[in-house]
């Protein structure tokens, strides 16, 4: 009877600890979602303003380069915010993947365009290379693929000293 009481006591404590951990994950997830939303709103304003200003054909090359840096840095910050939010969603079991048709070539070209300025600043060549026999239309979550590919390209540029980075299939 004593052993059963001990077991019941430990099971009760274990369940309470599990519930507290789940509550903590939920609270963290809610906090991260709120904070990321609050950061996204002004960041979208910065990116939108930079895009509008880049349409001005009277900008000097130095001004254009500065705006490109603002735009590129803003997009990088947005990617970090999205990564943090995705991690929070993953921990809370709320990550939803979309299954839709998308162009692999467009995703790769978008990622290469996003990091072209970073590669240029380091005097690196950034090139996409997709095998001709690779399917051009895929089914899946193109946003997650873009996110993963963007992280890989970003790290490749960050840790490459000279030469170039090529995006290709394995």
Descriptive report:
The protein has 170 residues and is mainly alpha-helical. It is 71% helix and 11% strand. It contains 4 helices and 4 strands, in the order H-H-E-H-E-E-H-E. It has helices at 2-54, 61-91, 104-121, 142-159, and strands spanning 100-103, 125-129, 137-140, 164-168. It has a two-stranded antiparallel ribbon. Strands 2-4 form a two-stranded parallel ribbon. Helix 1 runs antiparallel to helix 2 and helix 3 (104-121) runs parallel beside helix 4. The chain starts with a helix and ends with a strand. 7% of the residues are buried. The mean pLDDT is 87.
Q: Number of helix segments?
A: 4
* Radius of gyration based on Cα positions: 23 Å
Q: What class would the helix/strand composition place it in?
A: mainly alpha
| Strands ordered across the widest β-sheet | 1-3
Kindly report the average pLDDT value: 87
What's the helix-strand series? HHEHEEHE
Indicate the low-confidence ranges by residue numbers.
Answer: none
Through-space gap between termini: 61 Å
Strand content: 5-15%
The biggest sheet amounts to: 2 strands, antiparallel
The outline comes out as elongated
Record field, number of beta strands: 4
Helicity level, as a percent range? Answer: over 70%
């Amino acid at each position: 009877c004593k052993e059963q009481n001990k077991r019941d006591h430990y099971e009760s404590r274990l369940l309470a600890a599990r519930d507290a951990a789940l509550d903590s994950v939920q609270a963290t997830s809610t906090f991260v979602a709120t904070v990321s939303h609050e950061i996204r709103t002004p960041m979208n304003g910065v990116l939108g303003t930079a895009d509008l200003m880049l349409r001005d054909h009277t900008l000097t090359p130095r001004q254009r380069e500065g705006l490109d840096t603002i735009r590129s840095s803003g997009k990088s910050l947005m990617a970090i915010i999205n990564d943090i939010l995705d991690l929070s969603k993953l921990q809370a079991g709320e990550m939803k993947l979309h299954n839709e048709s998308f162009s692999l070539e467009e995703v790769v070209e978008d990622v290469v365009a996003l990091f072209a300025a970073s590669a240029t600043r380091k005097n690196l060549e950034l090139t996409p290379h997709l095998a001709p026999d690779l399917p051009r239309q895929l089914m899946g979550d193109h946003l997650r693929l873009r996110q993963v590919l963007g992280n890989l390209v970003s790290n490749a540029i960050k840790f490459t000293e000279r030469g170039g980075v090529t995006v290709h299939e394995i």
